[in-house]
Design goal:
Helix content: 55-70%
CATH class: Mainly Alpha
Structural class: alpha+beta
Strand content: 5-15%
Strand order of the largest sheet: 1-4-5-6
Oligomer: single chain
Shape: elongated
CATH topology: Outer membrane efflux proteins (OEP)
Number of strands: 6
Number of domains: 1
Largest sheet: 4 strands, antiparallel
Length: 475
């Protein structure tokens, strides 16, 4: 093989290696005009993810618990009306005055009808209404925290799906470039075989390596299609060539103890659990209120027509009714004990939530540190592998190395680049996982350009509604 040909082959291999390395270090660098950013993906998921929208609907449904509980302060009004036909026949005997009797038959037809209205207002029911309202409000606060947690999970899933696509594009680039390098290696091996510098075994080894690389390209394309399908499921749209993800390191806590402390104080899963404890505790008081006296004020107005011998009857009443429960069969006592056990369960669930969040923080922190170390090691490995590959190629030219040695070293370099790509993807995903574990993964923290969903809007719209079947959005 001539010196000029060897020089050309070496320049081509180095050029392709540089291209592949650039793709790895940038984790699939910027694409074309249709490329998407991680921020746009997160914004799209925030607004259109069905799981998140379903959770928002759940919060709106829970909002209705407050007006339902407030109904205990409001009167109950009912109206009645009736109309009918009544016919009576009376058969009897009357005295004639001379010791005799006369038989008679009397038939009477009436049309009884009437209308009335009744009003009942509770004045005291053992504080059941007050405690029911407070319990409902705690449920709403818990539902909002659950919504915050769902928002975190959706944003994390979207970030992970985006980074998976980014990773798979980069790996596909590296493997395609590897095919080009191996094609040049095979071409060079065949030329050297023709001049007797290598054996048929060398060309067969180069051919086998090339076919293996092509198989890896097919596998990378399949994996990319899978990741793109997952992305569409979460975000709601197809993705083209993604752009490099922006780092969120500036949003991360500075130390592990700080991250743990913040998570225990503000993670939505923990706060939702404690709101559940409050609601369950108040429910105990609601049940116990059934054992206390209740006082109701009842008023009614009624008018009857064609009743008995009167043409019409008008009646009205105002009654104060005090009810003192004495024994109701033991069901209320059982419900109170049940409510206490439920409250105890909620307290234990809150402890479980705190432990789970702490574990998630420690795990995410370790993943961030581990991925950072892997990036540094992989970068050093790439540099060393590239140097080794250049040396093996030079030695192969003078017969000190075989084609297999060159191919093995090329594979080592490929593996190092793929390791770097995966480590960089893991570093970004771990950063988002840490934000989520602390409770900071939100549209506000990330600065997403989206219309924020405010649960207070719907709550204010329905809290004091006395009547109406339609929801605030017109359904």
């Amino acid at each position: 093989m001539s010196t000029s040909e060897a020089s050309r082959r070496r320049r081509l291999a180095l050029s392709l290696s540089a291209v592949a390395l650039g793709a790895a270090l940038s984790v699939a660098g910027a694409g074309g005009a249709a490329a998407q950013t991680l921020e746009s993906a997160l914004s799209r998921a925030y607004g259109s993810n069905p799981t998140l929208n379903a959770q928002r609907a759940q919060v709106r449904a829970v909002d209705e618990q407050v007006p339902q509980a407030l109904s205990g302060y409001r009167p109950i009004i009912s109206a009645t009306a009736d109309v009918g036909l009544q016919r009576s026949r009376i058969k009897g005997e009357t005295s004639t005055g001379l010791g005799g009797t006369t038989t008679f038959t009397q038939t009477e037809t009436t049309k009884p009808r009437g209308a009335g209205v009744a009003v009942e207002q509770n004045l005291f029911n053992g504080f059941q209404t007050r405690n029911s309202v407070r319990s409902a409000e705690s449920n709403i606060l818990g539902a909002r925290e659950t919504l915050r947690n769902a928002e975190q999970n959706v944003l994390f899933d979207a970030a992970q799906a985006y980074m998976d696509v980014l990773r798979d594009y980069a790996i596909l680039d590296v493997r395609r470039n590897n095919v080009q390098v191996l094609e040049e290696e095979l071409r060079a091996a065949r030329e050297r075989f023709q001049v007797g510098e290598v054996t048929r075994t060398d060309t067969a080894q180069a051919e086998a390596a090339l076919q293996g690389a092509r198989s890896e390209v097919s596998a990378a394309e399949s994996q990319l299609n899978t990741s793109r399908a997952t992305y569409r499921q979460i975000v709601g749209e197809d993705i083209s060539r993604p752009r490099t993800a922006r780092s969120v390191d500036k949003l991360l806590p500075k130390s592990l103890p700080q991250a743990i402390g913040l998570s225990q104080a503000q993670h939505p899963a923990i706060r939702a659990a404690f709101h559940g404890v409050d609601a369950a505790t108040l429910q105990i008081r609601v049940v116990e209120g059934q054992l206390l006296p209740s006082l109701n004020l009842e008023a009614s107005f009624q008018r009857r027509y064609d009743e008995s011998s009167y043409k019409n009857v008008t009646a009205g009443s105002v009654v104060g009714r005090l009810t003192i429960p004495i024994y109701e069969g033991g069901s209320v006592y059982s419900q109170a004990r049940q409510a206490k056990e439920t409250a105890g369960q909620r307290r234990l669930e809150a402890d479980v939530a705190r432990d789970q969040v702490r574990q998630a923080v420690v795990s995410a922190w370790g993943q961030v540190q581990g991925a950072t170390a892997q990036i540094t090691a992989a970068q050093a490995q790439i540099e060393a592998s590239q140097t080794a590959l250049n040396g093996v190629r030079e030695e192969a030219k003078v017969g000190q190395r075989t084609t297999l040695d060159v191919l093995n070293q090329q594979q080592f370099l490929l593996n190092a680049r793929q390791t770097l790509i995966v480590a960089q993807r893991d570093r970004v995903v771990a950063s988002y996982a840490l934000l989520s574990a602390v409770g900071w993964l939100s549209a506000d923290r990330l600065g997403l350009k989206v219309v924020r969903y405010d649960p207070n809007v719907h709550y204010d719209q329905v809290r004091d509604k006395w009547i109406g079947l339609r929801t605030p959005d017109g359904r």
